[in-house]
Fold this protein.
Amino acid sequence: MSFDYDLFVIGGGSGGVRAARVAAGETGAKVALAEEDRYGGTCVIRGCVPKKLMVFASEYSGMVEDAQAYGWNIQPGAFDWDVFRSKLYTELDRLEGVYRNILKNNGVETFDMRARLVDAHTVELSDGTRKSAKHILIATGGRPVKPEIKGAELAITSNEIFHLDKLPERMLIVGGGYIACEFVGIMNGMGVEVTQYYRGAQILRGFDDEARGLVSEEMCQNGIKLHLGTNVLEMEREGDRIRVKATNGDEELFDQVMFATGRVPNADHLGLEGLGVELGRKGQIVVDDYSQTAVPSIYAIGDVTDRVNLTPVAIREGMAFVDTVFRGKPTPVDHALIPTAIFTQPEMGTVGLSEEEAAAQEPVEIYATSFKPMQTAFAGRSQRVLMKLIVSKATRKVLGCHIVAPGAGEMIQLVGIAVKMGATKEDFDRTVAVHPVMAEELVTLRQPVRSA
Ligand code: NDP
């Protein structure tokens, strides 16, 4: 049977673009890709990249005070959102162009429209044309969801935060996950008065308790009004503002409310019903270790499969898919020991098990230190950092590393290599310290602070 393409990819985000370009450019497959929105997907257009640029922008506010403490005669000025936003848009346009060019230069045919599946080998584009393909790869990502409460339509999500006409004076951010915690820091640094509601007992559920405790403390020190055990009951418009009634009885007016209350996979409206592709409880596409769905010709990667929802993981899944299907080298995706960073202020970097997870598995020793780093301590700040290792008593392997510090994302990438290689505490110990840096503490932790 002949097909129009060897591979049809639905979705032009990090995972889809990588799979399409490698399949076409490196294996010679005939590949097409459909994207209804902008190329680059969540990460490039409305996620990691613009978020990180906003983190950078927001961090300059504190730097002026620190510079003064170091003797610089400079005065803080106001942050100009319009200037930043227009530069941000230019950068995103440039990056989208890069993504389009990558596809073009690798011979991938692109369709700037929505696509849905008609059968196991056929895709229908929104203009009605149908294309057949030997393999179909779904890489449609996810989208933010708002809770179903009265007035939820008045709130924005992370999709809209990059497009504000002006910065609000007072803002409420709801949620305690990555997105909420990153944006409270960003908006606070940009001069917005920020309140955060989180329904649970501590933000960043699932991460190491000590690490998230420090992040939460430092966020409050930075001026964020964090209300734990609190949720929005209902909201209504009041003039230019939004009146929010909270579960703790508070009633407050905000200029802007953002829900960062989780994301759902974009697996609906794809025509999957009736094809035999299995969907999970959250609506995610269920795949095996090779990203193959229950229909052999249909694969799915990235957030739409709701495995580990991170850009580099989607890219890995895309590469493994190409190895499996187009290089005859079946490659399961390795989801173990993924280092990751949360761009809160202070930043958190983590790899492996939290103390709580590790202790539930086996006896462990905890090595940790918390201190005031030289650079900010000199400037008179009370900010503390945390370096923490979780070590197996039986094997001496470092099972987890948790860093809360400026630059923790950069540090954890490198620690991640050692942990992935199975380094023991003694391997860390025989590594000579780099002095004077914060990360040297990771190789000079002599005594465990406790066993667990
Ligand atoms: P998360 O699932 O991480 O967090 C959602 C938060 O919203 C949780 O605190 C959750 O509370 C809360 N919540 C859920 N439903 C409700 C509700 N009805 N009312 C009030 N609160 C609610 O989602 P995010 O949106 O923060 O991030 C999505 C994914 O994006 C992450 O899983 C991550 O993989 C990825 N991401 C990664 C980043 C990075 O690598 N730096 C940055 C941003 C996103 P509870 O804890 O009680 O369930």
Notes: The chain has three domains: 5-144+264-326, 152-261, 340-451. The first helix runs from residue 14 to 27.
